[in-house]
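ok so dumb question maybe but i'm new to this and my supervisor (M.) told me to 'just get the structure for Glycosyltransferase' and walked off. so i did the thing. is this what she meant?? sequence i used:
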Amino acid sequence: MSSPLVSIVMACFNHANYVEESIRSVMEHDYDNIEFLVVDDGSTDNSLAIIRALQAEYGFKVITQENQGVTKAVNTGFSATNGEYFASFDSDDIMLPGRIRLQVEYLQTRPEVGGCGANFEYIDAQGNHKPGALFKKAASYQFHDFFVDRRWLGGPTAFFRRQAILDAGGYDLDNPIQDTHLELKVAHAGYRLDIIEDIVTLYRRHDTNISSNNKGNFKSHLLAINQFQAEPGYIAAKRGLIHAELKKAVAEDRAYARELFALLPLKEWNTKTLKRFWRYSRKRFSPDFSKLRAQRKAA
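this is what came out, is it supposed to look like this??
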């Protein structure tokens, strides 16, 4: 019996330094029924020339469009593919051997699961391994786990049933970070989302990562949970997200911390909010002893 069709979509914008290695990591898999599509999202470097050369070698599909952002690029690819299973894969990451078969076989035996994630390791711009990736234990999550407890599959490893994405209403084209919101929507549609413990991706961290923009990430996550304001856990979900962002902001960016506190009405504050505010106030009103010492020396 033939293996089910798997669609892999790679959105690329100005990743000429990485896209060849990323494409080869997908095309050299041992899974025999892959529909691979690269969407060049208006690259201005040499990415498209590299993609075209690899297209001639491997025979995959390519779509070019003006720059619209990763969510719209991935959605373009999703709409143009037909696989029973679907994954988007970043054009700077490396897919490890065996990933596709592993995740297909997992979902094939669990029809109630809408998608699954796994583990990844960090690499730097040169491909050197870096420490720090959180290891996720095997688990099965539902909507509340993603919404309130802030669980996640992990964009570099997420793998979905196409029908689950369709049942969830597809991608939110207004959200610039597509993966977290899609996980929420699929879980809200009634599907379980599971974690496999295998390491399946090398996730490249460099200065141009979208995920390195902390403020942008926060806004995208807030936009995602704000679409579920009718859910009973909404206040807790919003408060937890703001608390996580405040942890660093109260120490390093007081202006941003003020903006974050303003997002929570006083009636929604809890003990953790008060602790964050105490740290913010202490930081705000504590004297800067380094400046005082400098002033004393100058006197």
